[in-house]
Amino acid sequence: MNTIDDAALVEALRQQMTKSVARQVAASGNLANVDTPNYKAVEPSFADALKGQLQMTATRANHINPANPNTSGMREIKDAVARRDGNTVELDRELLTMQRANGDFAAAQTALAAKFKLVRYAISESK
Amino acid sequence: MATLSSAINAAASALSVERTRIEAAVSNLANAESTRSVNGQPYRRRDVVLRAEPVEGFDAALGRSAATGVKVAAIVEDQSEYRRRYEPSHPDADKDGFVSLPNVDAPQEMVDMVGAARAYQANLAAIGIIREMVQKALELGKG
Hints:
With 127 residues, chain A is mainly alpha-helical. Chain A contains three helices and two strands. Chain B has helices at 4-30, 58-61, 106-138; strands at 46-54, 68-77, 83-86, 98-101. Chain B has three helices and four strands; from the N terminus they run H-E-H-E-E-E-H. Chain B starts with a helix and ends in a 5-residue tail after the last helix. In chain B, helix 1 (4-30) runs antiparallel to helix 3.
């Protein structure tokens, strides 16, 4: 008997892909600012993003201002060492992050493609 | 909402900024001996000032862009003192025989140029990685 729900599996893979994209976006932003003075390297914070989603958002001027306006889900990388110009980007760390995110994304995509193949097989009545 | 296209835009903004830095370094090197610029004074070395800026797009309009690009904030002239060289035969020499030469330091320009070239390469590599991801995502629609 199949105890793992198809929809739950697809959703989990989708989340892994979304997270990889978020990591990729943060790393490419850091890489772009490798020479910007005082730029602080960021990474996605999924806990912050969740908090941002759960909190109410001011969509009109007369709404009560939400306490935490940070809904971008990014936070500065902790214990990153700053260079003399105050910049905390490390070239190799960012490229490594990107390669890792790429690998995670590819893994999820492969699993998802295999899943879809089975679904297609079922739809076409195993022809 | 973080999207791969905003990541590519961020990397692309860095490419154009790094190219500007290389251009500035090259024009500084080219004018290392220019004793007369447009205003009649010796050339002053130019410095590129960078600023982090959220990439443009739909998300930026909503004020929640995730990717941070980079932009040239200004190109400023270095106001440090001119180099002076004793060369009485030079047409721009002062009464003591000294010529004011641009405040360009060749080794510094070379280091800047190498740094900018490396950053350019890194961002090019980043675009390659993102493109791989996009292609991988598109494969889901095949078959």
